[in-house]
Amino acid sequence: MLDYKLRWLGLDVKYVNPKNSSKTCSLCSGSMASHEGRLIKCESCGSILDRDVAAVLNLQMWGAGFTQKAFHELIEREELHMSTKDYVTQNPCP
């Protein structure tokens, strides 16, 4: 149904395999481990994210064909006022 509605609106539909989307750091591609409740912590860069936020960021990048580095360069090039890592750090999930 969602596929039909999006195509009806003229939007492209891209399917992405969700496997490991919440086990991969969306900032550095490192492995994520359980931290507290719904939070996960990257074993490489130390970032702490809500597992759903990490999954959504990864699925968006994978669907668009971006690497983490290219995705974050795009965000910074669009003149957002802070890097993704700074945003995540300053806006922790409850």
Descriptive overview:
The chain has 94 residues and is an alpha+beta fold. It has one domain (2-90). It is built from four helices and three strands. It has helices spanning 2-8, 51-64, 68-77, 84-90; strands spanning 32-36, 39-42, 48-50. The chain has a three-stranded antiparallel β-sheet. Strand 2 (39-42) and strand 3 (48-50) form a beta hairpin. The radius of gyration is 15 Å and the shape is globular.
Keywords:
alpha+beta, single chain, 4 helices
Oligomer: single chain
Q: What is the residue-mean pLDDT, rounded to a whole number?
A: 82
Strand content: 5-15%
Helix content: 40-55%
How many domains is the backbone divided into? 1
Tell me, briefly, the overall form.
Answer: globular
Radius of gyration: 15 Å
DSSP strand tally: 3
The secondary-structure class comes to alpha+beta
Largest sheet: 3 strands, antiparallel
How many individual helices? 4
> Distance N terminus to C terminus?
33 Å
Strands of the biggest beta sheet: in what spatial order? 1-2-3
Q: Stretches where pLDDT falls below 50 for ≥5 residues?
A: none
N-to-C SSE string, H for helix and E for strand: HEEEHHH
